[in-house]
Model the fold of this input.
Amino acid sequence: MAWFRRRRAVVVDDPREHRFFLFGGRRHLQSATYPLPKDMAEVNRLDFQHYLLRTGFRGNYASPLQNPTSILDVGSGSGRWGMEMAALFPLAQVTGVDLVPPAVDEATTLGHGLTARPANYSFTQGNVLERLPFPDRSFDFVHQRLLITAIPSARWPDVIQELTRVTKPGGWIELAECGVPQDGGPGLTGLWNTWIALCAKRGVDFTMGHTLGDLLRHGGLGNVTQHHLLFPMGAWGGHIGVMSATDCMAVAQALRAGVIAANIASEQQYDHLMALAKDEFARPKGKGVLPFYLAYGQRQQA
Ligand SMILES: C[S@@+](CC[C@H](N)C(=O)[O-])C[C@H]1O[C@@H](n2cnc3c(N)ncnc32)[C@H](O)[C@@H]1O
Done:
């Protein structure tokens, strides 16, 4: 993690004994490819992004599910997707798996408020780049969304194989990732290029979202279907456009320290790109769009 080491980072202990460090004023996971922070502000961003995606895709899944009884969410983040699926399928056991539990306060996780965790949702710690802590053929539906920055290009086939291993024959795997913005101005395009460069330094291809269907096909899944949706970015796109621009600016802030530490852009250059993007997003006649790809496939019966 050379791009982190250049800055003096403060290592902090988590009560649950995971190793984090403070970098750019945000808490990050140590020893992970994943570059985004792991703190309460990021939990809030992931929830916000979840509502954006659910609205855009008009629901939480696209696979032709038939009364699933076991659902796995890989890289579960805040757990919001899994908790909503648990409410939608009360007879299913929904499991979220991630490197660490979400950074939520105990009241939200365990309390009795509106956001209390449904009884049929649980969290398990695991790493999709290693062996997931579940037996073969455990789940009717395996979902993985927005792990693009966490999976080195060379490891995608292994990841598909691991997702397939834990899926029951006849069960479905669904993947969703973003693409690269189209028709954006120099601010949006410039920022995105710094993130592509940051990911490339760690063997990650931040432009591979459009290949999800092919990855499933090559992994031996059947009945593979891929959809994509173009999310408007900016005021010209109405409510969804403002939401996606807001999310993009939050990502820009979250990756700022990493890009600068990796010498991809200076502080001044990065802040200039952020100011340009903010201005582009405010224009009533912008036209930048962000493609989102969603692909699903079925594990063969054999
Ligand atoms: C961008 S967030 C997406 C969260 C959630 N899937 C969503 O759509 O809201 C990526 C999540 O993947 C997790 N992650 C990163 N690397 C992982 C790995 N190797 N195994 C499991 N989870 C991982 C991160 O901790 C983070 O919570």
In short: The chain is about 35% helix and 25% strand. The longest helix spans residues 238-261. Residues 32, 34, 36, 38, 46, 50, 75-77, 81, 98-99, 127-129, 145-147, 150 surround S-adenosylmethionine (CB under 6 Å). Residues 2-298 form a domain with the Rossmann fold fold (CATH 3.40.50.150).
